[in-house]
Design a protein that fits this description.
Length: about 350
């Protein structure tokens, strides 16, 4: 059986949640579990979290239905709302809440015929310019929804930050001020803080905070690691050495002969590659944890394997455990080496990787 595994630590997940609650002690928790819980397993992660959080956030009705069918009875909020008006019957059937961020969604809600009340979160565009109503549209949309007999009152109020991961910029403060100004006279509950704002912008916490990446032990802030915040890695991606070869000075390794030995050494082959979700563009020198030390990636990542420079005098053996990221090695380091972000690495684990869930 192939050695590549993703170990998911539920104890670490709950540790991170408790840290988030300490950071935002007066806010309820909307756990964002879209994209298969950031690659950690939607059903398993959500069932672990359910007794400890107030609501779940997903991107679409398909994800919400998976949650309901796996036994999640908590509130579920569709963060992108509906994509077509026919989905409103699904909203009713599965008792979902939805974000309204555009005129076509607003019209669909207003024209929908039902005797039930639908919970709405109205989204204000405070400067990200992706989803949400501008200031004038926001006020008018809120008035229309408040007058709609099948919309639950009061309307929830929300926005999303564009640059909260960089506390040095003042755009986040501008977004907070605009949101507070536009919603000051409105009665509905507010949610503004994503993972980065939970850490860096406590004035944005309001009634509901929306942790995503933080839950999984990664830092959303630029040039920071989850470990620096006291977080624990929830996922450890690991595999094993499957081959060790003696390499002479001047010999090359891998596709394109992109790495050449500067001295006699030993090359180790580890059973993981971009077919498993390890980043194809990880550079030579990217660290891999092996036997209590870091060894450098040497040569190109291939579909099923990577090669590492073990050193001439290494005592490593075939079958030794290698960690690609996790407790022993921060995922943020790998993301930086591959010119990407930890979000993408976590979400990119492929289906052929075996997932093991553990309490510690």
């Amino acid at each position: 059986m192939r050695a590549t595994k993703a170990i998911i630590n539920s104890e670490a997940l709950l540790h991170n949640l408790q840290l988030i609650k300490k950071l935002a002690p007066h806010s309820d928790i909307l756990a964002v579990v879209k994209a298969n819980a950031y690659g950690h397993g939607l059903e398993r992660v959500s069932n672990i979290l359910m007794p400890h959080v107030d609501a779940f956030g997903v991107a679409c009705t398909e994800e919400a239905i998976i949650l309901r069918e796996s036994g999640i009875s908590s509130r579920i909020i569709l963060l992108e709302g509906i994509f077509e008006s026919q989905e409103l019957s699904v909203i009713e059937r599965f008792n979902l809440e939805l974000v309204v961020h555009s005129p076509y969604q607003l019209d669909a809600i207003l024209n929908y015929q039902t005797s039930k009340k639908i919970k709405i979160w109205l989204k204000l565009d405070t400067g990200m310019h992706r989803l949400g109503f501008n200031s004038e549209q926001f006020i008018r949309a809120n008035e229309k929804l408040e007058d709609c007999p099948h919309v639950e009152s009061p309307i929830g109020l929300m926005s999303h930050f564009s640059d909260a991961d960089n506390p040095q910029l003042d755009i986040t403060e501008q977004q907070i001020n605009l949101f507070n100004k536009l919603t000051k006279q409105l009665k509905g509950p507010k949610t503004l803080a994503n993972s980065a704002a939970i850490l860096a912008w406590p004035e944005s916490h309001h009634q509901l905070v929306r942790p995503g990446l933080l839950l999984f032990g990664c830092s959303p802030l630029i040039d920071m690691t989850g470990r620096a915040h006291g977080l624990k890695s929830v996922m450890t991606l690991e595999s094993k050495l499957i081959s060790i070869k003696d390499i002479k000075k001047g010999e090359s390794v891998g596709y394109g002969s992109s790495w050449t030995a500067h001295q006699d050494t030993k090359i180790g082959v580890i059973a993981i590659g971009y077919g498993d979700g390890y980043p194809r563009h990880a550079k030579t020198g990217t660290p891999i944890w092996l036997n209590d030390r870091l060894v450098p990636l040497s040569g190109r990542v291939s579909m099923d394997m990577i090669t590492v420079d073990l050193g001439k005098n290494s005592q490593d053996k075939v079958g030794d455990r290698a960690v690609l990221w996790g407790d022993e090695l921060a995922i943020e380091e790998i993301a930086k080496a591959a010119d990407t972000i930890s979000y993408e690495l976590l979400c990119g684990i492929s289906r052929r990787v075996e997932f093991n869930y553990t309490k510690g």
